[in-house]
Structures are given as structure tokens and as C-alpha cells.
Amino acid sequence: MKKAQEALLKWYETNGRHELPWRLTDNLYHIYLSEIMLQQTQVNRVRDEYYPQFLAKFSSLKALANAHQDDVLAAWSGLGYYSRARNLHKTAKLSLDGLPQTTKELMALPGIGEYTASAICSFGLDQNVPVVDTNIARVIKRHFALLSPKVKTVWAQAEVFVYAKSPRSHNLALMDLGATICLPKNPKCEECPLKSSCLGKNEPEIYTQTKKTLYENMELFLGVCIKNNKIALETSTQKMYKDMLVLPSVEPIEEDFIASFKHSYTKYRLVVKLYKSQELDQQDFRWVDIDKFHTAPISSLTKKARKFL
């Protein structure tokens, strides 16, 4: 075990993603923000676009807490899974004196589960706790040959494996190993620092088998109503886009057809069709200036519709 830990840390010194901005700080808010963003978004998009832009608008927990929810959602626009932004905002309001510093206290806050709490304590405070995301779980399952284990079993094994002298670097090393070497398909076992101790290296893919996702196809018919250089939007009550501004649903009339495009989220594969609409009840909608449309709290689906307006 000790040799494996040392080999992992030595590999991390040379091959780790040390340049990521949230790894160059001990600011818990910055680390917390990055972990929430990275849950469903590629590292490059978070690093290059959303993380710096969000911090430019809300530089501290206090600034975030004092912001209007519409502004927070607008800054999150395009990232998807908008409950993350709402929970981020709620947590900021509950943490004006700073984020708590134990996993138990962190998990009592909105939208913070076991992984995020552990990541904050490990990456921000160098606490001796395990961290298990998708990449780390894959490494743990293969290295210790855990076949279809329960989640708590993976966490327990990760806890045993943590290098107590340097838990932060250990967990980050496991994360980077899973992201760059111990891949879901065609893992680069010959390049792995743990190859000599890995119990699953001969059949790595049997330890990470997953069920094939079944997708549901749907059509959406959305209305575009523009008057006096303003567009009609409504506040969504659907769980996926709750509190975001979206184009209203309409009955399709073929002669009013504008365009169609494809959009995907979670298990849904959508064909979105846009139609001109002149008969919307103005009292039911928010009229947003076309020139300010891109800064409104709109979803990525609504962003795609912009180019057809």
C-alpha cells in the first residue's frame, strides 16, 4: 500500500494538472464553486469560461449572497442543471461568515453531498478524508478488483488508501489518474504508476461496466413573439429549468414555422421547432429587450434558439 501511495504521488508531481486555477488557491469558496461547476461540465469549459466569468461577477460568498437570483442564473446560463446555481445561491446566504470546515456541516447545506463536502475539506483544508468522484471510483474499483461494489464499499476502500501525510495531493492524483490514464475504455495501463499493484489490470473493463443509457425522443413547439424590439419569455416551473426564462410553448401552425434544431439533456433527445406567434397574452410573460436577451437567465436551449430570431 505504501509503495502504491508513493508511486502515485511521484507520478502526480510530474503529470498532475497543477495549472488548474482552483488548485492554485486555498479559498474555500473558489474551490467549492469549481466543484459544483465541474459536476456536469468539461474541465476546459469551466476553466476557460464559466469559472473566471462567475468569479468576476461574484468574487466572494458575500457578493453571491447579496445578488439577485436572476443574476446568478444568468451567469450560470449555458451550464445546465440549474438547481446547482440555485443551491449555490442558497448556500451563500447561509454562509455569510464562511463555509463550515467539516464534511458533516457542509453536507447540511443545500446541494452539497458527500463528494462535494469531502472535496472542499480535502482540496481546501488538506484534511485526511477520502474523495470519490467518477474518475477516482474507477481507479479504486480496478486497483482493488472490486466487482460491482456498493458505493459505500468504494468509499471505504478509498478511505483506507488515502495517504495520511499528503491527503490533498493523494486525492488529486487519483482524480488525474482516472481522467488521463485509467480511462473508461482503452486504459493506458502501461503508463500507470499503479500497474505493479493493480489487481484488475488484466481485465480492467469488467470492473467499470455500466448500463447503457436509454434515450427518450421528444418534440418541443416554441413560440417566438417579438414586439417593439422585445421578446416574450416565461418563467419556467419545470424542475430542469426552474426559474429560468424560456420561450413559451405553442400549438404548431405550419405557415408560421421559423426553424428547427436539436438539443439534448440528461436522457432526452429533443427536436425543437420554432414558430412565429402574435397572439400571446402580454400579462403572462416577461418582455425582454432583444439587445439584452443574451444576458438574461436563459437556458442553453433558449440560447440555441437566439440565432434563429
Q: Can you walk through the features of this model?
A:
The chain is an alpha+beta fold. Helices cover 40% and strands 13% of the residues. The chain has helices at residues 2-15, 28-38, 43-57, 61-65, 69-76, 83-94, 103-106, 114-125, 134-143, 151-161, 167-180, 300-306, and strands spanning 216-224, 226-227, 230-235, 245-246, 257-265, 268-276, 286-289. Strand 2 and strand 3 form a beta hairpin. The N and C termini lie far apart (60 Å). The model has no long low-confidence stretch (mean pLDDT 91).
Question: Which features does this protein show?
Answer:
four-stranded antiparallel β-sheet, alpha+beta, 7 strands, 40% helix, 309 residues, single chain
Write the layout of secondary structure elements.
Blueprint: H1 2-15, H2 28-38, H3 43-57, H4 61-65, H5 69-76, H6 83-94, H7 103-106, H8 114-125, H9 134-143, H10 151-161, H11 167-180, E1 216-224, E2 226-227, E3 230-235, E4 245-246, E5 257-265, E6 268-276, E7 286-289, H12 300-306
Summarize the structure.
This protein has twelve helices and seven strands. By secondary structure, it is α+β, with helices and mostly antiparallel strands.
